[in-house]
Specification:
This protein is mainly alpha-helical. Helix content is about 75%, strand content about 0%. The protein has one domain.
């Protein structure tokens, strides 16, 4: 895995969907905390997207997948890497909401 160098895809998958959702929430939360530091935010986005790619391959309950779908749509590389979406105010709003939503998903998946 490119962004998560210390973990293999198999290791991440073995943790289960709840843990993966928490890991995604953590990356978005980290982006909020580091919103003034562009390079840190870019790293958080890369790790979150990589984890989302793994979670996307896992069969999720319909309620969870329906709630997460809008976040997946807004978290494409093109969307996240646009200049407007690298501004601290946008990062705080979107990433804060994304972290909360993935935390909620993790609790439903546990």
């Amino acid at each position: 895995m490119k962004a998560l160098k210390s973990l293999s895809r198999e290791q991440v998958c073995a943790k289960g969907p709840s843990a993966i959702a928490l890991m995604i929430a953590s990356e978005f939360g980290r982006a909020v905390n580091r919103r003034e530091h562009r390079d840190n935010v870019l790293g958080c986005y890369s790790r979150a997207r990589e984890l989302m790619g793994i979670l996307e391959t896992v069969r999720l309950p319909p309620l969870v997948s329906t709630r997460l779908k809008p976040l997946f749509d807004k978290s494409t590389e093109r969307e996240l890497m646009s200049e407007d979406h690298l501004q601290p105010d946008w990062i705080q709003k979107f990433c804060g909401e994304a972290a909360a939503e993935f935390n909620e998903a993790a609790s439903k998946l546990a």
